[in-house]
TrEMBL record, chain A:
The keyword Nucleus does not apply. One of its GO terms (cellular component) is plasma membrane. GO terms for biological process: transmembrane transport. The keyword Transport applies. It is a multi-pass membrane protein. It is found in: Cell membrane. This is ABC transporter permease. The lineage of its organism: Bacteria, Bacillati, Actinomycetota, Actinomycetes, Streptosporangiales. Residues 71-277 form the ABC transmembrane type-1 domain. It comes from Actinomadura soli.
From TrEMBL, chain B:
It comes from the Bacteria. Signal peptide: none annotated. The chain crosses the membrane at residues 37-59, 96-116, 128-152, 158-181, 202-224, 260-281. The lineage of its organism: Bacteria, Bacillati, Actinomycetota, Actinomycetes, Streptosporangiales. Keywords: Cell inner membrane, Cell membrane, Membrane, Transmembrane, Transmembrane helix, Transport. It comes from Actinomadura soli. This is ABC transporter permease. GO terms for cellular component: plasma membrane. SUPFAM superfamilies: MetI-like. Pfam families: BPD_transp_1. The keyword Transmembrane helix applies.
Length: 292, 285
């Protein structure tokens, strides 16, 4: 009898599965993630530090001023885009959260959601149409008399910044909105009733509450920007100094997979450092939430 | 507004200072308001104008892109539907996305159960690995997969591509289904079991059934991700595999086919409908 009870208790009704059942359930995931996520990075490292020069491949990369420049341009451009995206995203999300006008809410929500419905290449196509030599922007500006002749907009750093901002902004607004939802708006009234101006209330009451969420979004946006491929390659043009273009050139034109792998590893290092910083500053849960 | 009413109650001896403050504050607030309005307007214009342009241009009858269009009509739509290249690419993308999103679910749904409802060790690490395709810099991930595909000569291998896309859609299953499952109390299954249900019956009848809307939403997200995927395909697809995003990529590189405006408009409408459906489904749990 006693033995029976003990057995029942051990197999007892628990709301969680045993580790073994869990392993069975997660087995397909382990195989898929092992083959298509973990192993490719092992192979990437082997390629980066393999032929022709082993670890000297990294030295080769930094020997080339052009390659060094791409890394710098990529990091800097991503930083510019991140600042614009988080700042504009913070304002838009705050408007969504606080506006009482249905029209404002609808206009902002539509502006945020519609780009999300368009695939990444589509967005770049649209920007090419807009920024072409005889594209929409140049036509409009010339016919308004702002400029005399069409400007070179496409295949510039400006085009890349604009394109990347366009891709990232909607993705940033949604998690930021989710952050704001957790902030009690009565706090603003409370601060104002004690004599604070609206700006002061936002600065001293709302901003500290929103700051961890904003930082988390900054980290996520930066990391995604660093890895952009389509925008630099298509809007920046073939010769633009972006690491993505360099990688494409190494693989598709120069057939130097090792150099492409080194560049990829360097991007991973940059992203990894930024994520580590984010983990230390705001923790894992907030970063996860900033993913949307 | 609030500041004005407040200072009107201020004690008289501090009045001059308060008045000066209020004026200063009001100017500041006004400046901040103007800045806020400017940022909002610019951001909305920046987000909205490109979309309006592409929709307007899609109804132009011209053979080349021109803005504003001189003649209106459905020419772009007609020539898109009449073009084998575009239709083939679209069908291929559709097939790829349908299958790979289904595989994402097959892998992801049991995994979410294991990650949220089992005493498996290292769950945090496994979850992080599953989500990593979202944060790993895209190019680096593409090059990593490229090295794998080159090593095993998988380029232009459809099965490998489908599986890659399935893993690419996996983070959405983990995120959407995971957050839905975290909101379901685990004990309801036990309640069903006290009422006589077996463990599998309780799992399917209680938890899985309540998760159905979230499963639908995850499928839609995984589908859209695969359908729009344009980076990996460049590195893994080889010359023979032309999905819709790849076809558009190649087109943007060489010239601009105005038919794409029609495709973009149609897809935006389609994604809008399906995406809103996913949004509603997510709210259900």
């Amino acid at each position: 009898m006693l033995r029976m009870t003990r057995r029942t208790r051990r197999r007892g009704w628990q709301s969680t599965f045993s580790g073994l059942t869990g392993l069975g359930l997660i087995a397909p995931f382990l195989v898929a993630a092992g083959v298509f996520i973990v192993y490719p990075f092992v192979e990437l490292l082997r390629t980066a530090f393999g032929e022709p020069n082993g670890f000297g491949n990294v030295g080769d990369f930094f020997q080339s001023p052009a390659a060094r420049r791409t890394l710098w341009t990529t990091c800097l451009t991503s930083l510019i885009v991140t600042v614009i995206v988080v700042a504009a995203g913070a304002v838009l999300a705050w408007s969504l959260r606080t506006t009482k006008s249905r029209l404002t809410r609808m206009v902002i929500a539509l502006a945020v959601f519609m780009p999300l419905w368009m695939g990444a290449v589509m967005k770049i196509y649209v920007f090419t149409v807009l920024l072409e030599r005889f594209g929409v922007v140049n036509r409009t500006l010339t016919s308004l008399g702002v400029i005399d002749e069409p400007m070179q907009l496409l295949r510039t750093q400006f085009a890349v910044v604009a394109g990347m901002t366009y891709q990232m902004l909607p993705y940033a607004v949604l998690p930021l909105y989710a952050v704001y939802v957790t902030i009690d708006l009565n706090l603003i009234q409370a601060a104002e009733s004690m004599g604070a101006s609206r700006v002061r209330a936002l600065r001293d009451v709302v901003a500290p509450l929103a700051l961890p969420g904003l930082l988390a979004s900054t980290v996520i946006v930066y990391v995604i920007c660093v890895g952009y491929y389509l925008t630099p390659v298509l809007l920046g043009g073939a010769t633009a100094p972006f690491t993505a273009s360099l990688i494409a050139d190494d693989i598709f034109n120069l057939f130097e997979p090792a150099q492409a792998a080194v560049a990829s590893v360097l991007l991973l290092v940059v992203a990894g450092l930024v994520i580590l910083g984010g983990l230390r500053l705001v923790g894992r849960e907030r970063l996860r939430r900033a993913l949307g | 507004m609030t500041t004005e009413t407040l200072t009107s109650h201020a004690p008289p001896e501090t009045a001059p200072r308060a008045v000066r403050d209020t004026a200063g504050r009001r100017a500041l607030t006004r400046g901040a308001k103007a800045a806020d309005l400017l940022v909002r307007a610019l951001a909305v214009l920046f987000l909205g104008v490109p979309i309006l342009c592409v929709v307007v241009l899609s109804f132009s009858n011209a053979e080349v892109l021109q803005f504003p269009p001189e003649e209106w009509g459905l020419r772009q739509y007609r020539s898109f539907f009449g073009s084998d290249t575009w239709i083939d690419a679209m069908v291929l993308s559709f097939k790829l996305a349908t299958v790979s999103a289904a595989i994402s679910l097959l892998i992801g749904v049991p995994a979410v159960f294991a990650l949220h409802r089992s005493r498996l060790p290292l769950k945090g690490l496994l979850q992080a690995i599953g989500l990593s395709p979202l944060v790993i810099p895209g190019v680096a991930y593409a090059v990593a997969l490229y090295t794998l595909f080159v090593q095993f000569r998988l380029t232009s291998n459809m099965a490998a591509l489908v599986l890659t896309y399935a893993v690419h859609g996996l983070p959405f299953v983990l995120l959407i289904l995971g957050s839905a499952m975290a909101r379901l109390p685990a004990e309801t299954e036990l309640v069903a079991m006290t009422l006589g249900a077996s463990r599998p019956r309780a799992m399917v009848g209680i938890t899985l059934r309540q998760l159905l809307p979230a499963i639908g939403a995850s499928y839609i997200f995984a589908f859209i991700t695969s359908f729009d995927e344009a980076v990996l395909i460049n590195f893994l697809g080889g010359p023979g595999t032309v999905t819709l995003p790849k076809a558009i990529f190649d087109n943007v590189k060489t010239g601009l086919d105005p038919n794409i405006t029609a495709i973009a408009t149609l897809l935006m409408a389609g994604t809008g409908v399906v995406g809103s459906l996913a949004f509603l489904l997510r709210r259900k749990v």
